[in-house]
């Protein structure tokens, strides 16, 4: 999850060139699929999904790719409706909340970590830290003129969708962790997720007639790094599939979110990938330290 801000920035650049988020997502997933296949062979894990171990998966083991594709699509629609701050904050809070529930009850064969008072305190500190790092600077920014024409009731619906999007992402990570255990390879788990998502997106793009937009890649002189989103996404899924069975979805989620925040601030601070330069403030540094303190409290259980 650490590299998701990089993946999002790169995929957004590709989307601007091919004129549709679904084709951009498909290209990203296809590149990631090829990358994971090469990685699996290069590391001696063999060609994924040909050893018959798929028969040992529960039915919900195949949902990772579907959920991942849905989450990616939802994020595309959230930004213009909720704005940048809520699009980041609400799914993050959703991820944390559902990861605690999954940890507590051991859903999807996840490692069980019962909720305790110390862990609850740590979670509160993490959420406060996220709010201080991301939401508070925007609230205090008098020059922030972000306006939406969406009425309040419709906006509330999308806020709920954003929260559910966060739920779904943590569920996907947990599922992929179990799939990696069953297939005895987190690389194979990530490959299965990417294959399923790619097939779904191929169908969507065929129905919408988006493949004619591939011509824009050549005519707009697309830089090579616009195609790295799939590789970064593959690495993210692989890391999640590896970490979740080891440390639990709760801690994996929180560490991933901390990494996302830090990388996002680094991108903003130096204006990487064409982003507008926004220097890291003392308030944001305080927020990051609060998140780290929360993680320490959680690990004291």
Quickly describe the structure.
By secondary structure, the protein is mainly α. Helices cover 74% and strands 0% of the residues. The protein has helices at residues 4-18, 21-42, 63-105, 117-140, 152-182, 186-208, 215-219, 229-247, 249-270, 282-299.
Report on the structure:
The chain has 301 residues and is mostly helical. The chain has a domain at 4-117 and 165-250. 74% of the residues lie in helices and 0% in strands. It is built from ten helices and no strands. Helix 2 (21-42) crosses helix 8 and helix 3 (63-105) packs across helix 6. The protein is globular and about 50 Å long. Mean pLDDT is 82; it is low at 145-150.
Task: Please provide the ordered H/E string of secondary-structure elements.
Answer: HHHHHHHHHH
Mean pLDDT, all residues: 82
Q: What is the count of β-strands? A: 0
Shape: globular
Count the DSSP helices. Answer: 10
> In angstroms, what separates the terminal alpha carbons?
24 Å
Rg, please? 19 Å
Query: Which structural class do the helices and strands define?
Result: mainly alpha
Q: Report the sheet-strand fraction.
A: under 5%
Level of helix content? over 70%
What is the makeup of the main sheet? none
* Low-pLDDT runs: 145-150
